[in-house]
Amino acid sequence: MLRILEPEPREAAAFINTNRKRGLIAVFCICGGTYRGRAAADLPTGPYLILIKPDGSLLVHGSEKATPLVWNPPGSSNMAVVEGGTLVLKSLRTRPSESVVLKIERVFEIVLFDAGSSSVRLRGTEKDIVDMLVKNPDIIEPGLKVVGVEVPTEAGHIDILALDKNGEYIVVEVKRDVADHEAVFQLRRYVEAVAKARGRARGILVAADITSSAFHYLREYNLGFVKIRPRELAEKLLNKTEFEDTSIDVEK
Amino acid sequence: MLRILEPEPREAAAFINTNRKRGLIAVFCICGGTYRGRAAADLPTGPYLILIKPDGSLLVHGSEKATPLVWNPPGSSNMAVVEGGTLVLKSLRTRPSESVVLKIERVFEIVLFDAGSSSVRLRGTEKDIVDMLVKNPDIIEPGLKVVGVEVPTEAGHIDILALDKNGEYIVVEVKRDVADHEAVFQLRRYVEAVAKARGRARGILVAADITSSAFHYLREYNLGFVKIRPRELAEKLLNKTEFEDTSIDVEK
DNA sequence: TTTTAGATCTCGTTG
DNA sequence: CAACGAGGTCTAAAA
């Protein structure tokens, strides 16, 4: 970890350009700046924390919010220059063409820190719920047989395609949280596509909850709804898997 | 700006708890931790930068990506404690109930920085485009008369509702960038709702571009498309406004 | 590269 | 507080 305090503009620029690929650079400073690209924004001059990451990410954080005030995503080219005695940090991105330009009036401290690059594995995602439901389709409807997952149709990818006990196609759309009307329209599209391609189909929305208007549309389009509690479901299935594993061990 | 280097756990905890409402706290450290809530994640032990904001936001950044590895949003309650000699940072949020717990094994530096709270005003948003189109509806179609903006229907809010030169209702959906098939389905819903409520309606999608599948659906549903160049449009209308202002001055 | 859809989306606005 | 929709969304995965 390297650290410089109250550096002169030239010193700061050299430090940033030398180390921008070596680790996370944190610049505690007073600056103002602009963003130009898909939209446009101006950052009023004030005290901010600038983060420059080795992957090209540039973030300017204030004292509020989880999201940066201005930023450029990974893959951007960041460079520090001294223009007319002031330190200027330029971040350029192509496709789409976007720029962040920061005029840094005063630098309190710059830190170079070799931060970790580990990614975090998330559990409890929609994909996890789909996996559980595929292994336990009776949760959706007794007698259901899963035909496919992420099945492509002309209207998009179906979370789960199944056959009910009468051999009719069932289209299942899964949401991990509150399903809104968009989810219902999504399901409706998929059902229409399957009906068109394979004759007849029913749709079932599986979610932790549903908004009132989504429920309204669900009835209007004659679609089904199955309420799940993702957390409890995860526990239950974890136990079931453990039980099954034990059984297998016994059988062996 | 306050700064402590290589603090002991007790010292670090005291510093964080004393200052967490006073400014942005940046902790350069080695830590591991967990997130539990809407989903679940485990952060492997490594060097990270922790940001604690006065509004309750907690961010853990690594060397990659624009988004934090784990985080808690504004409004969270953050507290540092020492448990069995190790510094532990706990962040709690209610509704939804979520927690981030970080076990900090080593602290290199903690900085308290009174970062600015200014918000950034964005230009070139969809709202800006809608405003321009309302003032210049001929861009959409010659002879168009705007009836309303953000008009509520049972299917949602219509960006622009207008009447064409024959007195037929026109539903306009605006996208500032590439319109995808969701935008087309959205427009279709609005047109259906207006047709149901007011007799007859046409739909026009106004966007900078359109995906191929969106275009396919557009034709299928017999909806129109008007391509705009938001940036050029903004310039043109800015000039026009200046011209109009001048005219008004002259008339006065 | 384009397209698609999820996300601990976040954030603002409205009822 | 719920609901709705935009966003410079970001991000990963698939075609």
TrEMBL record, chains A, B:
Claim: Ribonucleoprotein is one of the keywords in the record: no
Q: Which Gene Ontology cellular component terms are annotated? A: cytoplasm
Its lineage opens with:
Archaea, Thermoproteota, Thermoprotei, Thermoproteales, Thermoproteaceae
Subcellular location per the Swiss-Prot or TrEMBL entry: Cytoplasm
First-listed, main subcellular location of the protein, grouped into a coarse class: cytoplasm
Database matches in HAMAP family: NucS (MF_00722)
The UniProt similarity line reads: Belongs to the NucS endonuclease family.
Task: List the InterPro entries.
Answer: Endonuclease_NucS, NucS_C, NucS_N, NucS_N_sf, Restrct_endonuc-II-like, tRNA_endonuc-like_dom_sf
Q: Which residues form the Endonuclease NucS N-terminal PH-like domain?
A: 23-116
**EC numbers, comma separated:** 3.1.-.-
Endonuclease NucS C-terminal domain location is 126-235
Keywords, ordered alphabetically: Cytoplasm, DNA-binding, Endonuclease, Hydrolase, Nuclease
Molecular function terms from GO: DNA binding; single-stranded DNA endodeoxyribonuclease activity
* Protein name per Swiss-Prot or TrEMBL: Endonuclease NucS
| Top EC category | hydrolase
